[in-house]
């Protein structure tokens, strides 16, 4: 018996990468997991795998830019497993590139998914957490927000916005009901480079991924560490990066 066993964890961006690894890892540790993303076929395969191994899992199509989708997603978790103890707001895109390209559509898309997507999750989960008397918000932020490098300014800005939002919410919720955790991954081997439109930047990210990125399971273990703490212990920030990353 661990403090993960029996918890209900809803995860956005669970169709690949960090979200998928987190769903599989937490399910192995005894959590009931609710997977959300747009690629339902991918979610179904993961849910089938988890169930075949004796785990508890369900899914729902979610576009995090749509507030109603997040409400339906969290409600689905409550209807299926009785409550939602943790929301992992993990869905994100990295349409990075030089700022001077002025790719305003890419900036808007990153703000919509990375910032509004997390706010939509907070708006959907908080009423449920209040009703239950407890809840835990985990967000996948980034080392990009800690060190600003060329081509990543807008992406880093969205991630720093999320860090700020979570800290603000934490400051307002000190009655013991809410735990908040920001996870800062460095380079992690996932499909994230696919969301980069600028060919040169995409190749640079892919090269970094191939050469020194760590496995998404490393981030999943960090998320599990935050979740498994006793209710009076909040892990605020965790940075998980390749040992060789500058
Ligand atoms: P992936 O591209 O593998 O996963 C991204 C996930 O987000 C997918 O499941 C995708 O699902 C989902 N997603 C994207 N847009 C939406 C949307 N509008 N609605 C719902 N889901 C959406 O990349 P990662 O696993 O790497 O990314 C996960 C998080 O980790 C992101 O927030 C990313 O910024 C962050 N991160 C990643 C790092 C890395 O090096 N990989 C480093 C630091 C942070 P679908 O397309 O099916 O909707």
From TrEMBL:
UniProt keyword Oxidoreductase, yes or no: yes
GO molecular-function term, one example from the UniProt record: oxidoreductase activity, acting on the CH-OH group of donors, NAD or NADP as acceptor
Domain of life of the source: Bacteria
All copies of domain Ketoreductase, residue ranges: 7-191
PROSITE patterns linked to this entry: ADH_SHORT
Pfam families: adh_short
InterPro entries in alphabetical order: KR_dom, NAD(P)-bd_dom_sf, Sc_DH/Rdtase_CS, SDR_fam
Keywords: Oxidoreductase
Family listed: Belongs to the short-chain dehydrogenases/reductases (SDR) family.
Protein name per its UniProtKB record: Oxidoreductase
